[in-house]
Amino acid sequence: MITLSVISLLVAALIIVEVTVRRSDFFSPGRIYLFLHALTMGIAFLSLDKAMTPFQPFTWLVYLGSGAAYLLGVWIAWSMGKLYPHEVRPVGIDAPYGKNDTRGTIDSGYNWTLHLKLAMIFFLLFVAALTFASLGIGTLPILAKDKAMAIRNIFKVNIFSSIGLSYGGMVAVLFFMAIFRPRRRRLWFNLAFWMMLVTLGIYITALSRSGLVFFTLFALVYYHQAVRRLSIPKLSIFFLVSFSLFLGTAYLKLTNFQKQYGLNVKPAQLMVKLLNIPYIYVANNFWNLDYALNPEVYHERHPATYGFTTVSGIFDMLLVPGGSAGSAIRDAGGYDDQFQEHVVKVKGLNTVGYQWGLYKDFGLPGTLLCPFAFGLLFGLVYGQMRRSPTVANTALYAYLSYFVGMSWFLAFWESMIYIYGLMFVSAICYLGYRIKSGIRAIEPDSVFPIPAVPGE
Fold first, then answer.
1. Least confident of 19-33, 141-155, 255-269
2. Which tens digits make up the pLDDT trace of 149-190?
């Protein structure tokens, strides 16, 4: 397994070298997928935990097949882009990415005043949801003695507080976008900048990492594509800082699991044990996938879900008496919820890569056809963003980048929270062009435009 780890990490390193030498786009659809999957697989196959065992042949078929299908879809989208007639690349968005390349200021036809007002409304809803949920469990998770239990319970007070609380990262994203609006003030006098910091500070009290990871990846992609190219050294520094923050929040969440993780040790040994936490969080996604796809005596770990899992987030949005339509379908079919009880190899570590949901829905063909279709779509979105770098196109690409970049961890398109978030961000961007401000509005057709058919 060490050999596989070395090969995977070498692939990730080669992508960094290629980006550095050719000055290509690190956050393109293919590189996002390849780099993060290669990096995390390389970490997982270090085998620092006995639960991480070699992949079975069928797991390799599913994992490598789905990745190849996705990359094929991206490549076809790229090939189609080469055929677009009269392709125009605006000044500041020129490819390849130069040494001091600046993407330039996002178009001034966008109604940033309305954007900020809507962001403030969502901020107030988020704070209200956090307050209500905290009162429901009696404390904030960061102040609770049993932090893991508090984190789990705070999202169960009711569905409305759960949804509102989950949008801390998305509210911070809206403020982050507004920092770079035209005619902005200096950073220290920029309201959007301070509101972003306040939102993140409040959100940290809930000890929810997913929203912070979403904010981080969205902000990186958006800034890189809309404002200024991020160099590899800058990205490295940023990820080192993020990793340090991750260790801190992970420790706060796992203090009540000291016996389980072996953290009840002398202070001199604490850091060594603490560093094992990131490995477990990365590797469990891979060992759970292998465990799920290869049950003993050929019995399925989970019944077939016939397409429900992939669109379960939409069903969770539909309220019915007693809960949501998604919950009702899960109860009737005996399907797993987000805690993935059927495929947990080690208790408490329940995340699994995106291939598992597709396999439950459509079998092996689904693990090949669905990634291909998404790769094709994502590649077209990327091409459209490069040709027409509006606020809407850039935000859509940055949002979908989170789905792709974190697909080694979970299939976030199955989450009601992220489906809602995509709808809200898209709606705000749409209104920003449709409701005119004092600045001239751009033509509506450039907002989420449909790519031209090759040859037209």
1. 255-269
2. 787 777 777 777 777 777 889 999 999 999 988 766 677 788
The whole-number average pLDDT for the span 218-246 is 82
Task: Tell me the Ramachandran region of residue 237: left when phi exceeds 0, alpha when psi lies from -120 to 50, beta otherwise.
Answer: alpha
Q: What is the 3-state secondary structure (H, E, C) of the chain?
A: CHHHHHHHHHHHHHHHHHHHHHCCCCCCHHHHHHHHHHHHHHHHCCCCCCCCCCCCHHHHHHHHHHHHHHHHHHHHHHHHHHCCCCCCCCCCCCCCCCCCCECCCCCCCCCHHHHHHHHHHHHHHHHHHHHHHHHHHCCCHHHCCCHHHHHHHHCCCCHHHHHHHCCHHHHHHHHHHHHCCCCCCCHHHCHHHHHHHHHHHHHHCCCCHHHHHHHHHHHHHHHHHHCECCCHHHHHHHHHHHHHHHHHHHHHHHHHHHHHHCCCCCHHHHHHHHHHHHHHHHHHHHHHHHHHHCCHHHCCCCCCCCCCCCCHHHHHHCEECCEEHHHHHHHHHCCCCCCCHHHCCECCECCCCCHHHHHHHHHHHHHHHHHHHHHHHHHHHHHHHHHCCCHHHHHHHHHHHHHHHCCCCCCHHHCHHHHHHHHHHHHHHHHHHHCCCCCCCCCHHHCCCCCCCCCC
CB atoms closer than 10 angstroms to residue 45: 22
Mean pLDDT to the nearest integer, 85-100? 39
Question: Of all residues in the chain, what percent carry a pLDDT higher than 90?
Answer: 49
**Would you tell me how many other CB atoms lie within 10 Å of the CB of residue 376?**
20
pLDDT of 443 above 90: no
Query: Which backbone phi and psi does 228 adopt, to 5 degrees?
Result: -155, 140
Q: How confident is the model at residue 235 (pLDDT cuts 50, 70, 90)?
A: confident
Q: In this structure, what token pair is assigned to residue 251?
A: 């420790």
